[in-house]
Amino acid sequence: MDLALAHPEYGYYRTRDPLGRKGDFTTAPEISQMFGELLGLWAVDMWQKLGSPRAFNLIEFGPGRGTLMADAVRAAKLVPAFGEAINIFFLETSPTLCAEQKRRVPEASWIDTIETLPIGPCLILANEFFDALPIKQFQKTDLGWQERCVALQSSADDDPPVFAYVLSETVTNPLLLAANVRHAPEGAIAEICPLAQTIMEQLRRHFDANPGAALIIDYGYAHSTAGDSFQALKNHKYIDPLAEPGEADLTAHIDFEALARPFDTDTCYGPVEQGPFLKALGIQARASALSANANEHQRDDIASALKRLTDPGAMGSLFKVIAVTSPDTPAPAGF
Ligand code: SAH
Predict the structure, then answer these.
(1) pLDDT tens, 234-255?
(2) Which residue minimizes the CA distance to atom 17 of ligand 1?
(3) Domain boundaries, position 67
(4) Which of 2, 48, 75, 188 lies at 20 to 30 Å from 181 by C-alpha?
(5) pLDDT in tens, 279-319
(6) Looking at the 3D structure of the chain, how many domains does it have?
(7) How far does the centroid of ligand 1 lie from the alpha carbon of residue 28, in Å?
């Protein structure tokens, strides 16, 4: 998964802009400006709760085309002191997307790794970033939990080899898995995302020295659970994840319980579903305000974007939101 997505020459994210109608998938900020605007206002509120520091870092992980940040900053500049205080940073690996981000947010700077987060008060946004990080899968067998690996195999001597799942010969330490997952029945599949865990531990350490909050939005499970969520999207259709490495978007569901594990309960909020979260931030009022100045066609677009972002049958329920904060920090809005 790591190679298919991040190989310097052939990796999926290194070779294209995957977003939008002509790409492979569409994300919330690409559906409507309302999404980024509300997150911008969330950031203003949180900045005020942190005491309105005169300089602080607004950091986005995996910013895609930079659309979310451009919408967020435009909305947030309604409070001029916020606009004057922010330094914008992007954590991004794709050169194609960096170019898009520079076009939409020319004042941004880039950081290469989570180890080099800038010092100072900070707010961090991450929408559909964690689902793109490589996972490991394990399968429960009569021996215990064996890692599910990918190997080249031929079904007959003269057939070209194809990628297939194989089980590791060794058994994995079950303590790697959440307690309830560990006891799943034989045949069950479990997933972990070691890089996501490392990033959350790094964030926790960063917040010990720098006041701030991170808002994480993605699709996945509120509680650790067994299941195979590894999936591939190409041209907005699901395909076999092993079929076209480097040519399809590979993702897995987020385990929000695992993500929050490094944080104490008084520095962790949610997960709440995206629909109620956006409604708590005022998406319906924003949709009405936009509609008041729109023509009929635009009004239909606004109504359908509102539905797509908040409806339980669309993104409103599968997508979830958590916030984590530095110690002794007021509760973020929306929870
Ligand atoms: N947040 C954007 C884009 C989501 S797609 C949106 O909502 O539209 C995932 C993003 O994460 C892309 O920008 C991709 O290039 C970036 N990404 C994937 N793996 C990454 C990694 N290991 N480090 C930094 N960025 C990564």
Answers:
(1) 999 999 999 999 999 999 999 9
(2) 62
(3) 2-135+193-325
(4) 2
(5) 999 999 999 999 999 999 999 999 999 999 999 999 999 99
(6) 1
(7) 13
Whole-number Å distance, alpha carbon 63 to ligand 1 midpoint, is 6
Q: Which two tokens stand for residue 300?
A: 């239909």
Using the mean position of ligand 1's atoms as its centre, give its distance from the Cα of residue 151 in Å.
26
| Residue 111 covered by a domain | yes
Query: How many residues appear in the chain?
Result: 335
Structure tokens given for 273: 């579903």
Find all residues with CB under 8 Å of 73, minimum gap 6, and list them.
40, 58, 83, 86, 88, 105
Atom of ligand 1 nearest to the CA of 18: 5
**Is 155 part of any domain?**
no
Residue 182 lies in a domain: no
Nearest residue CA, atom 6 of ligand 1? 64
Kindly report the pTM of this predicted structure. 0.97
* C-alpha span between 43 and 32 (Å, rounded): 18
Q: How far is the CA of 102 from the centre of ligand 1 (A)?
A: 15
Where residue 280 sits, what CATH number does that domain have? 3.40.50.12710
Residue 104 forms part of a structural domain:
yes
- Token pair for residue 204? 């926790």
User: Ligand 1: residues whose CB is within 6 Å?
Assistant: 13, 19, 27, 29-30, 62-64, 68, 91-94, 97, 127-129, 132-133
User: Half-sphere exposure (CA, 13 Å, Cβ side) for 256?
Assistant: 23
Residue 268 pLDDT grade (very low, low, confident, very high; cuts 50, 70, 90): very high
At residue 265, the 3 state secondary structure works out as helix
**Centroid of ligand 1 to alpha carbon of 156 (angstroms):** 39
Calculate the average pLDDT of the chain. 96
